[in-house]
Amino acid sequence: MPIRTLQIPTAAGKADAFAAFPDRGEQHPGVLMYADGFGIRPVLREMARELAGHGYYVLVPNIFHRHGPAPVVELPEHIGEEVRPAVFAQLMPLIEAHTAERVLSDADSYLGFLTVQPEVAAGPVAVTGYCIGGLSAMRTAAAHPGQVAAVAAFHGPVGVDGPDLFSELTAQVHLGHAEGDLTPEALGELNQSLDAAGVSYTSEIYPGTIHGFTMSDTDAFSASGLKRHWDRLLPLLDRTLGNN
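== Dienelactone hydrolase family protein ==
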């Protein structure tokens, strides 16, 4: 599965990015994938390739492009608990600077770029994200109701913006929560807000998981959690993007 390095024009300058897609001379539905707070690294390329192998053009931008090309912060091959505090000390200023306004400004550019690529089929797209990327995915979907048909967020703080965000959603939604992030009571309250907003969704706690469970280069990784993520994500995309 080829990987293409890209530069996406944005209001804040060019954002480095990469795309993974089947190299068969065909067009495929587009998916915008937001990385977690650690940003673009080999595990994100692996996940993008995996998704592309199911018949999608997957665009992964460097969400911290205002601070330099990826990797903005040097990362070890495995982000274990012993190095996590030092890495996050470098990352937190970048995460805090990545405001909702920046997310939405960049999302306009990412979606505009994605939809004109010659390998991308006409029609709606999907957005998926991990950790803070999950919140960015939800914000992107809410801001582009006519364009985003599906959104999925995994171990992300998706309730941060409150019910006002949910009321803007027209996309079908899947939320995969870490057991370590959300109590059953908090899940019930979140799902009630989604119900009240009329969102078509599934929202569940993945058993035995902690925050970051999809990322195989961290101590939080859960093989069963990652499998469940694919088992939920792929049918959602196939159903909403008509990729059979």
